[in-house]
Amino acid sequence: MSCRNCVVSELQFEILLKGENNIAMLDMIVEHFNRRNLTITKKEQIVMIQESGVKEFLDFSRDYMEPELIYFRLDEMPWEHLAEIETVLEMQWIDDVIHRNAVVSYSQPIVNSRNEIYAYEVLSRFTREDGSLIFPNEIFAAAKTRGRLYALDRLCRMAAVKYAAVLKKKTFINFIPTSIYSPEYCLQSTVKLANLLEIDPNQFVFEVVESEQVDDIDHLKSILNYYNNKGFQYALDDVGEGYNTLEMLGDIKPHYMKLDMKYVQGVNKDFEKQNTAKQFLKKALEIGATPLAEGIETQEDFEWLKQIGYKLFQGYLFGKPSIEPQRTIA
């Protein structure tokens, strides 16, 4: 099995032509590309064009074709209007970030009810060539636009596994399930690296990032089963925000469930948030998952959640993400 998404290489665009005028120009376009030594392949109403030739095609289509009847896609993603292709071209900088392995791992402590560090979550930060930081939401949006989610997700996972050797405590590592084609194929390098570094699999908790909506629950389960069979644990992030119903969690059976910060911050005085937090806690205990509240910034919220039975806690109250692991809680 292979996927064009797994490595950084020149993108290949599928261009779909509709309309008699556009289709009539197909052979002429192919001949022109061949004369220019630009790679192109034709199949019925579709041409495959390398990124190096896309701008030339765009210029021609605007002058002599009907661009509103032309569509494109990457790697079997949904078809989009040709006008949107400029956005993909503008995001080319993400390829350089991945090629340079320009990721830095930070860690944030996760504490127990006694204010002791139980684990760390590893968070990825990315740098430009001048050393300045790129915001995570900016880089993941660019990776999604250019079909680079797998390559970026793998880069972050591998860096986090290496960082875990320094942490020497339970380590939560984020991953995007929709970026993974097949767990046996896409995740084997993660397992091999952990074995090479002689890290006990039980140290790792792979955390599903819910911000990337998971529609295919069976695919998610196949990924989590793969990790579980290798001795790793897994957590669900931002529960309460996604996964639609708490009942679905019983089918997935996570080792940890993280209550989203929108239900945590101010919970000590907000009845609706309290109700959500209690419902979440009940479900976590029913399925044997350890409940973890994230985004805690005040002592009052910490005390309230601890009093009703939450076991683990994360947030600025205990420590901000840092390059050097925080070893004690002030």
Describe this structure in words.
The protein folds into two domains: 12-90, no CATH class; 93-314, Alpha-Beta Barrel (TIM Barrel), CATH 3.20.20.450. It has 330 residues and is of the alpha/beta class. The radius of gyration is 23 Å and the shape is elongated. It has 13 helices and 14 strands. The protein is 39% helix and 23% strand. GO terms for molecular function: cyclic-guanylate-specific phosphodiesterase activity. InterPro entries: Cyclic-di-GMP_PDE-like, EAL_dom, EAL_sf. This is EAL domain-containing protein. It holds the Pfam family EAL.
Radius of gyration: 23 Å
Give the strand content.
15-25%
* Largest sheet data: 8 strands, mixed, barrel
Question: If you consult CATH, what is the topology of the largest domain?
Answer: TIM Barrel
Distance between the termini: 50 Å
- Please name the CATH architecture of the largest domain: Alpha-Beta Barrel
Count helical runs: 13
What is the fourth-level CATH superfamily of the largest domain?
EAL domain
Q: By helix and strand content, what is the structural category? A: alpha/beta
The general outline is elongated
Q: Tell me how many strands there are.
A: 14
Q: How many structural domains are formed by the residues?
A: 2
Low-confidence stretches: 1-5
Task: Give a short overview.
The protein is an alpha/beta fold and about 325 residues long. The protein has helices at about 20-25, 25-35, 50-65, 85-90, 95-100, 135-145, 150-165, 185, 190-195, 215-230, 245-250, 270-285, 300-310, and strands at about 10-15, 40-45, 45-50, 70-75, 80, 105-110, 115-125, 135, 170-175, 205-210, 235-240, 255-260, 290-295, 310-315. The protein has 13 helices and 14 strands.
